[in-house]
Specification:
This protein is of the alpha/beta class and 730 residues long. It is built from 25 helices and 27 strands. The strands form nine sheets. It has a seven-stranded mixed sheet with strand order 20-21-19-18-23-26-27, with helices on both faces. Strands 5-8-11-1-12 form a five-stranded parallel sheet, sandwiched between helices. Helix 3 packs across helix 8, helix 17 crosses helix 18 and helix 20 runs parallel beside helix 21. The longest helix is centred in the N-terminal third of the chain and has 38 residues. The two termini are 57 Å apart.
């Protein structure tokens, strides 16, 4: 195709020709068939080639020679070689015997200053071994990749790392030329990286010489006209008028020679690695290229169309990586055009606005041979164009980014290195002492929400590192200490956590939180706000005579999962209660659920306890809070966020909290809360009621009755309930 024209190969008959002789030669497309033409080469491109052959200086040396890879340095390692070790300065050792129980994994350091940070991004990736392995393979084979996972798990970092891993390619400059046959269809040429500037400089030099010759000729003619008007015609006004007309003619025709200078839309002359373009959130023009609007369309003042062409990210990523996060936010038309660019490896640039003069301009196809890395959350796959996803999957890989990683000594050492990386990357933070590093690793364990795991949400963890470092820096300390990290944990609370704490304080002021005594039909439930914030959410139940058939009526802006939870609870109540529910209406209220309502089923045991308490007139101990899902058979199932919920109960003044037995291993509360609250794991509804209800005679009778009814069911299901079911995302 014409895009692949190599301007380094001059025509055989042009070796000794000067620029003026070349200008007089016929255009190649007029004398050669379409399949053999040399790409409508301008004479100045050929002139540049001749200078390369003649000039022995460095000015026009082929820049491609500088890009020759050193095989000893650019070999791509296997996944086992990348980031598998934490390098420390000589003299620092790893105590393998103590590594298993040591928070630093046996790393014998005084501060992160002793940890060596890898130079390459791919070596800095932590925890995403499968994704990193895929990135390495995709870089070798030039495959597309789609990465799906939670924010802050390393998607953009892996994308940047891929551009450093790509095999050495001949980078290209892209030039856009004026088309004398059709000004609205500029011609596109690709040249080796670095050649573009030489060609443009040659064109500008030639234009300067022509303009200089025209200026000299113009002033000679003006002088002759003025001399004739003064000496012969003796009419100075007529001479000035004639001289002005000549000046305007030369000025107007001069713009034609300036229009012959090409526009370089992609310049890779200074790059030594493959380009990386982050097109996240880019509009159609920024992604696909655009043509600027020109308000002057007549009178010789218009800007040539080729000078108004602007490249898109897909063109600037040619031979490199195009990264688009939240891929589903691109509109369908843009996704379709992106799909075409992926398929064809080239995409013409045209004006994206229908009302702009640029809409009339469309270039020849511009190279866009990039590797596509699409990223997003789980919902990205729902709104993504199926054909675009098929293109990526058909020519590459799909990978899910993990949220947590198993807690091992090696991983703890890598987390220490992560802190060193954040300090080095920021450049203004003091290094962390060993105790400060241990506290950050403890927070990583806590934020994972799973026992013996570490979180992989490094963006939020990095935020904690930066806040702690800022605190130490503000006090002019040489190192960041454990106290700084503890203080940072309070300062870096999420908005949801700040709101939750504010709610708790307000409810205390207005006596909305009840933490002692017993109340029928009222239970302190627990919920989460966002991802890391717990809040106590009271649930109240009231029994009233039915106006028709008995029904369960719930308020509090319940969402789908919570509504299903209420229905499951009604099935349990019908089975375990002696009351004829056909004549009763059960009213359930989620007190101060807020505008967002209630989602998820983690309040199932709370609802069941409140309703049974109201039906049987047995008070609920208000010093007890609870969370847990409930099956229709009465099994207490695991939920998410138990650590944050327990801490919320402690802040609210509760002395006991009931959690699913399966979640017992996930509890990692702060030290300050351990003595404030007693954690009671339960596996079935009878155990919950035994702890939560008050009034010994009636409570014991109810619990004994439930145990006798459900003993066989509970005995058969206990193994499955406590065997480690995955928590629901409450």
């Amino acid at each position: 195709m014409s895009n692949d024209t190599n301007v380094d190969d001059p025509p055989e008959d042009a070796t000794d020709a000067g620029p003026d002789e070349e200008q007089a030669q016929p255009r190649p497309q007029d004398t050669e068939p379409e399949s053999e033409r040399q790409g409508d080469r301008s004479p100045l491109e050929e002139d540049g080639d001749q200078r390369d052959d003649v000039d022995d200086g460095d000015e026009f040396d082929d820049p491609i020679d500088e890009f020759e890879p050193d095989s000893s340095e650019d070999d791509i390692e296997t996944v086992e070689d990348l980031g598998s070790e934490v390098e420390v300065d000589p003299g620092v050792e790893i105590d393998e015997d103590a590594a298993e129980d040591d928070l630093l994994g046996g790393l014998q350091i005084d501060s992160t200053e002793e940890i060596e940070v890898p130079d390459r991004l791919v070596d800095q990736v932590i925890g995403q071994d499968e994704a990193r392995d895929i990135i390495i393979k995709a870089a070798k084979q030039r495959r597309h990749v789609m990465m799906i996972g939670s924010p802050g798990t390393g998607k953009s970092m892996l994308a940047k790392a891929m551009s450093q891993l790509l095999p050495q390619e001949d980078l290209q400059d892209v030039l856009v030329y004026h088309n004398p046959d059709d000004g609205n269809e500029p011609k596109v040429r690709t040249v080796p990286a670095g050649k573009g500037e030489q060609i443009i400089d040659a064109h500008k030099e030639e234009a300067r010489k022509r303009n200089q010759m025209r200026s000299i000729l113009m002033w000679i003619i003006v002088a002759i006209i003025l001399a004739y008007a003064i000496l012969i015609a003796q009419n100075i006004l007529l001479g000035i008028l004639a001289a002005g007309i000549v000046w305007l003619i030369f000025r107007y025709t001069n713009r034609g020679s300036d229009a012959m200078v090409p526009n370089m839309i992609v310049n890779n002359g200074d790059k030594r690695t493959a380009p990386f373009e982050d097109a996240t959130g880019a509009h159609a023009g920024a992604l696909l290229g655009d043509v600027r609007h020109d308000p002057f369309q007549s009178g010789g003042m218009e800007t040539p169309s080729h000078d108004r062409v602007e490249p898109g990210s897909i063109h600037q990523a040619n031979k490199g990586v195009l990264f688009v996060d939240e891929i589903n936010t691109l509109d369908i038309r843009t996704q379709q055009k992106l799909m075409t660019a992926i398929q064809e490896g080239e995409f013409a640039i045209t004006g994206q606005s229908e009302r702009s003069s640029g809409a009339m301009v469309q270039t020849e196809p511009v190279p866009c041979d990039f590797i596509m890395i699409a990223a997003g959350n789980l919902d990205a796959m729902e709104n993504m164009h199926p054909a675009l996803r098929n293109r990526i999957k058909g020519y590459g890989y799909e990978v899910y980014m993990e949220d947590t990683i198993e807690d091992t000594p090696e991983m703890r050492r890598k987390y220490a290195r992560f802190i060193a990386q954040e300090v080095e990357r920021d450049g203004r933070l003091p290094h962390f002492t060993d105790e400060a590093v241990e506290e950050v690793i403890l927070e990583a364990k806590r934020r994972s929400g799973r026992k013996n795991h570490l979180t992989l949400h490094f963006r939020t963890l990095g935020g904690l590192v930066r806040v702690a470092g800022d605190i130490a820096r503000s006090e002019d300390r040489e190192f960041t200490t454990r106290e700084d990290v503890l203080q940072a944990k309070g300062r870096s609370r999420s908005i949801e956590q700040q709101l939750a704490d504010d709610y708790i304080e307000r409810r205390k002021d207005y006596e909305l939180e009840v933490a002692d005594g017993g109340v029928e039909g009222r239970v302190n439930g627990l919920a989460v706000m966002g991802e890391d914030s717990g809040i106590m959410l009271p649930v109240m139940a009231e029994i009233a005579p039915a106006q028709g058939g008995g029904q369960v009526i719930a308020t509090g802006k319940l969402k789908e999962m919570a509504e299903e939870s209420v229905q499951n609870v009604s099935a349990i109540i019908k089975k375990f209660s002696d009351v004829d529910l056909s004549e009763k209406d059960i009213h359930i209220q989620f007190v101060q659920a807020g505008q967002q309502g209630v989602d998820g089923d983690s309040a199932s045991i709370t609802v069941a306890t409140a309703v049974i308490s109201a039906l049987e007139d047995i008070p609920v101990d208000q010093s007890v809070a609870m969370t847990g899902s409930l099956s229709v058979r009465g099994d207490v199932l695991p939920v998410g966020g138990v650590t944050h919920k327990i801490e919320a109960a402690a802040k609210a003044g509760c002395s006991k909290v009931i959690i699913p037995k399966a979640n017992e291993q996930d509890v990692m509360i702060e030290d300050e809360y351990e003595e404030m609250i007693e954690i009671i794991p339960c596996s079935n509804i009878s155990e919950v009621l035994d702890v939560a209800l008050m009034g010994e005679p009636k409570k014991d009778s109810l619990v004994d009755r439930l145990k006798s009814i459900t003993s066989n069911a509970f005995e058969g299901s206990q193994g499955s309930v406590g065997s480690g079911s995955n928590p629901s995302p409450q």
